Amino acid sequence: MNISKESRDFLENLRVYLFSSGKNEKETEDIIEELEDHLYEAEKNGKSVADIIGKTPKEYMGQLANEMSFDFKGLLKYIPIIILGAIAYIVMGDAIRGEMEYSLLDLIGYPFIFIFALFLTTVLFKYVASNKISKIREWLLFGIIGMTPMLLFIALIYLNRFYDTPIIQFGTAGNMIAIAMSILVFIGIALWSKTWVTIILPITLFLPEILLDMTNLQESTKLILNGTIIPLCVGIYLLIVFKIEKNKDKVKLP
């Protein structure tokens, strides 16, 4: 079904808004499909999105979200997977560097930071989906939200310096088990989500560091190369994804 870019963007924003509001995925998709049919018929008669919803996109999304029940069961399906994936990234990085030791503050602070960052992300997605903002402002907001967990982790490091709490240390065997378990988590999430992202990103983030550690280069040189290669690889990957999505949009448009 060919609809205009305006209508397709509205439907995609609506999907993001409802998903970020904790609404049932199947119910959301049913509403999107029904609304797409209405938009298709309306456009054939020269009408626009505003003619169909009768109000601003923000007002319509808010009203629709209020009429739908909160899918607590569906939310419980995603949160553990997201937290497990985030923990796997941290654990694998620490295991590769041989730095696997965690204080009681770490064990409490990590889950709190993950949940808080997830909350901020959902709030931001709802805001971006329901408001017309410039791309610069959008990227700026995502940048701020992306920096927040990093700042909280830095604060956690300083807390560990001021407060002595019990520490759990892992030896070589523990590091190897942690790496193996993290790989299984990445593969499991990739199979569950039907995407290669959770496999490609760990390879992009950790493989350069592993390969550089095998060389005889000075530590300062390794840090410089690692700090250059990783952003470059991530940038190339994001560019490829952007190109693929852009080509998909061109195919969808009439």
**Average pLDDT, to the nearest integer?**
80
Counting DSSP H or I runs of 4 or more residues, the number of helices is 10
Query: If strands are numbered along the chain, what order do they take across the biggest sheet?
Result: 1-2
Overall body shape: elongated
Characterise this structure.
The chain is an all-alpha fold. Among the domains are: 5-67, no CATH class; 195-254. The protein has ten helices and two strands, in the order H-H-H-H-H-E-H-H-E-H-H-H. The protein has a two-stranded antiparallel sheet with strand order 1-2. Helix 1 runs antiparallel to helix 2 (25-44) and helix 8 (172-193) packs antiparallel against helix 9. It is elongated, with a radius of gyration of 22 Å. It starts with a helix and ends with a helix. The model has no long low-confidence stretch (mean pLDDT 80). Residues 89-203 form the HAAS transmembrane region domain. InterPro entries: HAAS_TM. It comes from Bacillus chungangensis.
Q: Topology, pairings included?
A:
Blueprint: H1 5-20, H2 25-44, H3 49-53, H4 57-67, H5 72-97, E1 101-103, H6 104-130, H7 135-162, E2 167-169, H8 172-193, H9 197-213, H10 219-252
Antiparallel strand pairs: 1-2
Helix pairs in contact: 1-2, 1-4, 1-6, 5-6, 5-8, 5-9, 6-7, 8-9, 9-10
Describe this structure in a few short sentences:
With 254 residues, this protein is an all-alpha fold. The chain is built from 10 helices and 2 strands; from the N terminus they run H-H-H-H-H-E-H-H-E-H-H-H.
Considering the chains and any ligands shown, give keywords for the structure.
single chain, 254 residues, mainly alpha, two-stranded antiparallel sheet, 10 helices, elongated
